[in-house]
Amino acid sequence: MIDFLKTFINTIAAPEWFVSLAIVVFFVALFWEKLWTPKPALYVLGAAVAFFTVSLLDPNFRSIVTKADNVPIVAMLFLVGFFIWLSMSQAYENDRRIGRGEKPMEASEPVSKVLVWPDLVYTEFICLILFTVLLIVWSIFLKAPLEQPANPGDSPNPSKAPWYFLGLQEMLVYYDPWLAGVVFPSLIVVGLMAIPFIDKNKKGSGYYTFRERKVEITIFLFGFVILWILLIATGTFLRGPNWNFFGPYEFWDVGKLPPLVNINLSEYFWVKWLNTGLPKGWLLREAPGFIVVLLYLLTLPPLLARTLLRKYYEKLGPERYAVMVILLLSMGALPVKMYLRWLFNLKYIIAIPEYFFNI
Amino acid sequence: MTEKDPREPAAGGSPAGPEKSTAGTSPAPGQAAKPAASASRRGFLSWLVLAWIAFTAAMTAGLTALTRFLFPNVLFEPPSTFKAGPPSEYGIGIVDERWKERFGVWIVRDEEGLYALSTTCTHLGCTPNWLSADEKFKCPCHGSGFYKTGINFEGPAPRPLERYRILLAEDGQVLVDKSRKFQWEKGQWEDPESLLKA
Questions:
Q1: What is this model's ipTM?
Q2: CB B141 within 8 A of CB A243
Q3: Between A155, A261, A353, which is nearest B127 by CB?
Q4: Most C-beta atoms within 10 A of its C-beta, which of A268, A307, B49, B143?
């Protein structure tokens, strides 16, 4: 029974299953109002703790999860869950109040003020001492791994980025370095800075609400939970030697080498579908890729403006809408490419190694 | 309430207040009459100029030192050419890893001859491992895979591993010259110097 369960979990830990499952759970959970009350949250927490506790009996799971580097990531998963629950539960509570014609919770908060000194500074001082103690105890019990001297001829296997960059490292598996390492990170930063200029929804200022900001919150949480936190967890727990995927109960076998031969779109198009050889010049060779990318970036925005995002196009105006939709499409490009790789072994949509240009 | 307290003594005891007014109405006598006050306007200006000169000089010196620091006195770089023994040491179909750590080169022999592969992954520059059982180079950073020839076939690496110039030295040893590299995607593997027929 246990073995069957382990095999099952290892099987659905394959990325195409596991990420699809996470996306479904994400949307169901977000719109399931009942979940964001104390009782169901406690059940979920209990289930998560039970899962971890029982799983720790498995030697492979234990060796990865209790590794000194990975312990804080486990803590992070619980903390992220808790804080999302905290804000969402207040948002749903406010929605219920607003639905009854009342004011949000925040309106009834006391307006009295306290002094910086001593009230705030003392609290900060106590926190500082407690966290210093925590960090010292932590560093004594969970030792930082000391590895052999740096040697450019010998990369550790697997070579993992610091935990906060594992999302980027996962992105680098699917995109060329200049995109995943330069363009996308810049777009993330610029996009986050652009939010206040794009978001014209005045509601929800000063109080938590979900109903009045459904789309905004959903987009943000999708980017944060699925495209950042989930990728960090994937990189920490599921990526093993040779950067292969391993199930949580699977032994990290250096010899596990699934064939992952992947193919560029040009090869799919010219060789597999048209049964001709690859054209000599890169322009003709990559024409199908260019068409796909241009279709994605140029025809989707006006199409969405007329259909799915019509309300937003009217509300934001053409300029704001253009910025918003381009940011949205670049965000969507990551999961799109991930699925194309997992399902069709597609390497690059446009591949011009002659000029270091690959998408 | 707490805001007022520090302000009051400042307004009464500030030396700047009265001095400003005298300097404004009659500058010359005001300054001559007050030799005891250490900070006169003219004196202050000359000190300011001096301070700025000193500050600029210090910054220039600091930046110069920093720039100098970017060019080390001794640069440790392994020689770009090395001799790798006679060709007979290399068996057909075998990837020789002897030169990986010191020079960053794999020497491989196939039916045609010997070629020197760079050990730098073309994706982001990690060092792949040669997995002899599976006959492929596999990068531990993002999972790129290369055939024995150096051609990329797995993961994100956009182009094949680079090859180095390889030739026979006068003493009959294999000579690898890392200062010239040959890239497949530019058609440079056709170059006779990228393959040592031996």
A1: 0.83
A2: yes
A3: A155
A4: B143
Preferred mutation among B77, B127, B142 to probe A, highest tally of A CBs within 10 A = B142
pLDDT one-digit tens code per residue, B116-147: 999 999 998 899 999 888 899 999 999 999 99
User: Are residues A243 and B155 in contact, defined by beta-carbon separation less than 8 angstroms?
Assistant: yes
Cα gap B179→B88, rounded to integer Å? 24
Q: What percent of chain B shows pLDDT beyond 90? A: 44
User: What whole-number distance in Å separates Cα of residue A93 and Cα of residue A89?
Assistant: 6
- At B53-86, the pLDDT tens digits run 999 999 999 999 999 999 888 887 778 899 999 9
Handedness of CA B110, B113, B118, B124 (dihedral sign): negative
Residue (of A121, A163, A178) closest to A353 by Cα position = A178
Assess A185–B contact: CB distance below 8 Å, yes or no.
Answer: no
Residues B81-194: name the CATH superfamily.
Answer: Rieske [2Fe-2S] iron-sulphur domain (2.102.10.10)
Contact B100 A153 (CB under 8 A): yes
Adjacent-strand bridge partners of B174: B168
- φ, ψ of residue A358 in degrees (nearest 5): -135, 140
Say if A257 is an interface residue toward chain B (CB within 8 Å): yes
Strands (E), chain B: 81-83, 95-96, 105-109, 114-118, 129-131, 136-138, 145-146, 152-154, 163-168, 174-182
Q: How many CB pairs under 8 A join A and B?
A: 82
Q: Smallest CA–CA separation between A177 and chain B, in Å?
A: 7
Classify burial at A129, counting beta carbons within 10 Å of its beta carbon; exposed 0-12, middle 13-18, buried 19 or more: exposed
C-alpha A7/C-alpha B58 separation (Å) is: 67
| Delimiting residues of CATH 2.102.10.10 domain(s) in chain B | 81-194
Summarised one tens digit per residue, pLDDT across range A90-113 is 999 999 999 999 999 888 888 888
What is the C-alpha to C-alpha distance for residues A287 and A280, in angstroms, rounded to an integer? 12
Phi (first) and psi of residue B166, to 5 degrees:
-135, 130
Residues A155, B141: C-beta atoms closer than 8 Å: yes
Q: How far apart are CA A77 and CA A74, in angstroms?
A: 5
Is A347 in CB contact (< 8 Å) with chain B?
Answer: yes
Q: Do B197 and B180 meet the contact criterion of CB atoms below 8 Å apart?
A: no
- Point out the residue among B119, B124, B153 whose CB comes nearest to the CB of A153: B119
Distance between CA atoms of residues A96 and A92, nearest Å: 6
* Residues B40 and B31: beta-carbon distance below 8 Å: yes
Residues A156, B154: C-beta atoms closer than 8 Å: no
Distance, first Cα to last Cα, chain A? 45
Contacts of B138 in chain A (CB under 8 A): 242, 257
From chain A, pick out residues whose CB is under 8 angstroms from the CB of B125: none
